[in-house]
Amino acid sequence: MKQLQGISESPWLDSLLLLEHATGRPREDLLAELGDPAEKALKPSWIDSFMKCTKRRSSGIPVAYIIGRKDFRGLSFAVGPGVLVPRPETELLVEEAVRMIKNSQNVVRYHDCCTGSGCVVIAVTAECSALGVRLIPSFSDIEEEALTWARRNARDLLGDEPAIRSWRGSWLEGLDEPVDLVTANPPYLTREETRKVLSRGWGEPRQALAAGDDGLEAYRELVPQAASIIAPRGELLMECGSGQGEAIREICQRHGFDKVEIIPDYAGHDRVIRARQKIAPTNHRGRERN
């Protein structure tokens, strides 16, 4: 565990997860059975595997990359190099999306952009399916490597039903039909924040983290695209960083979104922006649905 101090914000938990992976034993059993010193209860092969995992973690490789999985909303997502690891704070984005879809009187046409591992769209689709709520989902990402992970997760976690369209594209590029809901967890770290987290050994792709000097570049590109494709009374839901809510609200209002809400997480920090489309957008080619 000492090897991970200064690299990890949770060295004890990282060590436990890596030990669970190295031994193939549930963490509950490990905690109940390991004595002091722990080495007496572990096979030499387990110790060797654990030390190799710890060495990789101390070099900055995320735990989720090492074990190849990350739990999110009760689902186990496959992750690895080239994709952002799902985080607990993103669960609020899923909750808000499910709430919107569940309360709609129509079948919701739903797109998730910059999808990464696919954790948002897959969790939303799975939870709506469990509730018996129909939707028409799709997802996209500019990085082919991320799309590979997302497609694998969709196949493994959702099977063939419902079918989810996916394609490579920047933001909402390739989305040529109106949708009722767009979700996005875009990059939102400032240049300085990105430098700091990467210096601490974060091994995730820079392009999934960095968003310019003020952390708002992604919103300046995404919001106008969303304004031109979201159907009347549809919604744009975006994750954001602490303290960014008001600036993003202004961007949304400038591009014609009506009611714009800043939804805090359980710690009280800005976390999700909900922007509602008021009138038919300029480039909208479909008809408003009642």
Automatic annotation (TrEMBL):
Keyword Transcription: no
InterPro entries reported in the protein's UniProt record: HemK-like (IPR004556), N5-glutamine_MTase (IPR050320), PrmC_N (IPR040758), RF_methyltr_PrmC (IPR019874), SAM-dependent_MTases_sf (IPR029063)
Gene3D superfamilies according to UniProt: DNA helicase RuvA subunit, C-terminal domain (1.10.8.10), Vaccinia Virus protein VP39 (3.40.50.150)
Keywords annotated in UniProt: Methyltransferase, S-adenosyl-L-methionine, Transferase
Domain Release factor glutamine methyltransferase N-terminal: from-to ranges: 3-68
Single GO BP term: methylation
Protein name: Release factor glutamine methyltransferase
